[in-house]
Write a structure and sequence with these properties.
The chain has 3 helices and 4 strands; from the N terminus they run E-H-E-H-E-H-E. It has 110 residues and is α/β, with parallel strands linked by helices. It has a 4-stranded mixed sheet.
Length: 110
């Protein structure tokens, strides 16, 4: 199954649901869905998945934990934007332990 970051949810979302059903379940709880590490070989997203899915906030284009095995997913973000999607990109730690924290961040110059 593809990984989804579910923010602001209070109940577990059934991971056996389809991608769109999980996004919808997150949204029904008032949460937001971010599609995680789209370039991960075994659990990544194909461009057609990103284009077909609806009502998600964005995709994780950078993941500090996976930086050694996966390229930055700007190609997937660009393809989704070109198709008409209006989604954000995220760069995160995707940490599963203390040693993986504090590596991914954005710097905005405005």
């Amino acid at each position: 199954q593809h990984h989804i970051i579910a923010l602001n949810v209070s109940e577990h979302v059934d991971t056996t649901l389809s991608l769109q059903e999980r996004i919808d379940a997150i949204n029904l709880q008032g949460g937001v869905a971010i599609l995680a590490h789209p370039n991960l070989r075994c659990r990544g997203y194909r461009i057609r998945n990103l284009i077909a899915a609806e009502n998600y906030l964005g995709i994780e284009i950078y993941n500090s934990f996976l930086q050694k095995c996966c390229r930055v997913a700007t190609d997937k973000w660009d393809a989704a934007l070109t198709s008409g999607k209006r989604i954000w990109s995220f760069g995160v730690d995707d940490s599963h332990s203390e040693s993986q924290r504090g590596k991914g961040f954005f710097c905005l110059f405005a």
